[in-house]
Amino acid sequence: MTNRIPRSFALHTFALVGLVSALSVATQTLEAQVSVIVSAATPKSASETQVAEIFAGASTTWPDGARVQIVENADAVLTQRFFAKVVKKPTSIVRSQWTKLALSGQGAAPKKGRDAAEVKALVAGTPGAIGYIPSDALDGSVKEILRVP
Amino acid sequence: MLTRHRFAVVAAVSLVMHGVARDVVQAQEGPQLYGYFATRLEKTFRKPVNDNGQLAREALPQEWSQPFFNIMMQHQFDPKFKAFVNLNGAGAAEIDVRNLWGEYSRSNAFNVRVGKIYRKFGLYNEVLDAVPTYYGIEPPEAFDADHLLISRTTNLMVYGNVRAGGGRLNYAVSTDNGEGRDIEGNLPLGYDVNYNFGRGSYTLGVSGYLSNGATNGDRPVGEGSPRSGVLPWMARDSFSVINFYGEARTGAFTFQAEWAQADHQAERDAEAVLQVVEGGALNPRQRARFLRNASAPATLANVNTNGDHRIELWYVRMGWSRETMRGEVGPYVQFDSYSNPETVGPKRVGGDAEAGNTDDGRFTKFTAGVLYRPVPQVAVKVDGSLFRYRFLGQRVAYPELRFDISYAFGL
Question: Domain spans of chain A?
Fold first, then answer.
């Protein structure tokens, strides 16, 4: 008697691996890209490093000296992904740093938008504001300065 | 000190009023109001005491600080001007203005802050009142109110940053009209330079302070611990402080370390020293330090007026943040080492209940604890410390437990 693997088992395994891989790719595609935004009326721009420094609390002003006003997105999943990819820190550490800056007067207390529409409204209406939204929610009221895949 | 604060308040109000005037023309958002309420419980066990030359132990009564608050108000008059107020207190009758300043920002590289300001010095001085945000209940010994290296506040600070390499070079220069209570004309210089890199994750820096001439303490003997770096029994003290520090915040880990040294070229006030000797319960080493002949009676002629001394300290702190389904959990460990040969024990004469009660002015403190945030606004901390030092010729240790809970609002 030989210990050969049944052909049907091998086919099923192959199919399963293929399905999981396809789902994985599809899930990544479905995950919305994140856009870092500022007011459409402002000439402000920033590199990915500068954006990371701003959200990490290492920089509280724009290059022209204007104060940074962070607008947090209440979408916890989006926020977690954004911080992990750009700031490379957990949400709790980033929030704690913002609080530290506010309590010492070094930075403004962050504002919070309940959804992309509110984040856009806050960013568009607040001098020096910076926020992040799903890229598919972009419109003319704000300007994208960085896209995070 | 009074003159200094008057100057600070007038300067800050002037800057704020200038901002208000601009605000009328260029209306912006209203002020931001936020802060936190907190309360703390502390208990010391088996603290070594001198019982007629024999080592004995006593448990100190637990200390409960009544619920206190820190309320901050910040207003951005326009993109260049802002004002900040930080009030601390346990009630309407005990409100302390910790900070009151106005600020003008020309650019990233040039900002001017005027008023009563926590100076930029090391990792903690500027964030002393942000207790809910850092690992640990007590600040490092370098910033402990019982033995300050320098006054926490200053009146004029210029600061900024420039991009350099892959990071930012931050600088701050500060000055005021000195630490002392009755010496005029000093123009001390404080500075802080650090390099922040790795997307804000790493910081290496140095802070310093030069008294720029002789000064004295801000409180006389008998009125408690000084709020500056000069001990109350000094007639004159010309001193400098240097402090190296580093911080790494990578992923969920935070690591901090500082080393500082303060050199005091000081002359003791003989009459003040007699007050210390009479009311200070000095140990033999301290008595030998303060008097020319330690076995002779304490008289003006017997006081040794040379008060030169060096303070050295360092600490390391580590914390780790773990987000769970029930909130954030953050265990931490800390180690402090402090050495000050000049201080004495009793706080009422301006001494330090920790270093001042040791044989040689040195102690170490190991702390372990945990921070728990069920929601971002609430921070619950529990930690314990073990103090170790020499006392009555023996190596001794005693533990201290602390509990702190705070609630932040408007953030």
Answer: 33-148
- Contact between B339 and B311 (Cβ < 8 Å): yes
What value, to the nearest 5°, has the Cα angle with vertex B226 and ends B159 and B282? 140
Among B108, B157, B255, which would you mutate to test the A interface (most chain A Cβ atoms within 10 Å of its Cβ)?
B108
Chain A nearest C-alpha distance from B217 (Å)? 27
Q: Which residues of B touch A61 (CB under 8 A)?
A: 105, 108, 111
Contact at CB, B105 and A66, closer than 8 angstroms: yes
Residues B285 and B359: beta-carbon distance below 8 Å: yes
Q: Answer whether A65 sits within 8 Å of B72, measured CB to CB.
A: no
Provide the whole-model pTM: 0.86
Tell me the C-alpha distance between B216 and B221, whole Å: 12
Supply the pLDDT for residue A24: 53
Q: Which of A47-61, A111-125, B83-97, B175-189 has the highest mean pLDDT?
A: A111-125
- For residue A96, give the nearest of B397, B376, B59 by alpha carbon: B376
CB pair distance less than 8 Å for B105 and A52: no
**Residue A26 in this model has a pLDDT that exceeds 50:** no
Paired tokens of A90: 């957990």
Tokens of residue B249, six digits: 């915040």
pLDDT over 90 (residue B125): yes
Instruction: Kindly identify which residue of chain B lies nearest to residue A63, measuring between CA atoms.
Output: B108
Residue among B142, B131, B116, B135 nearest B65 (CA): B131
What is the architecture, at CATH level 2, of domain A33-148?
3-Layer(aba) Sandwich (3.40)
Give dist(CA B357, CA B353) in Å, integer.
6
